[in-house]
Design brief:
Low-confidence stretches: none
Mean pLDDT: 88
Strand order of the largest sheet: 1-2
Structural class: mainly alpha
Shape: extended
Helix content: 40-55%
Order of helices and strands: HHEHE
Number of strands: 2
Length: 76
C-alpha cells in the first residue's frame, strides 16, 4: 500500500527495495550455499527469537503461522 503511494510520487525512476524480502532472499541463498535449506514442510522444529516483547511477538506469530508459537528474548 505505502509502496504504491511512493511510486505514484516518485515515478518509475526509483526502485523500491523491501528490506524484508531482500533479507529473506539473502538468507535463502546463504542456507542453500551451506546445505541448510529445505523445502520440507512437516516435522520441522522452529525456534523463534525476538528483541521485543515476547507476548506481542507470540500473538502475531500465532496468527500468521496458524499455530502456537513461543519465542526466546534476546538482549542486544
Amino acid at each position: 500500500m505505502l509502496a504504491q503511494e511512493i511510486k505514484n510520487v516518485v515515478g518509475d525512476q526509483v526502485s523500491l527495495v523491501d528490506p524484508g524480502i531482500a533479507t529473506a532472499q539473502k538468507v535463502a541463498v546463504y542456507l542453500k550455499q551451506h546445505d541448510q535449506f529445505t523445502d520440507q514442510t512437516s516435522n520441522i522444529d522452529n525456534e523463534f527469537y525476538t528483541t521485543g516483547d515476547q507476548k506481542k511477538f507470540a500473538i502475531i506469530a500465532d496468527h500468521l503461522l496458524g499455530k502456537k508459537v513461543t519465542a526466546d528474548h534476546l538482549d542486544i
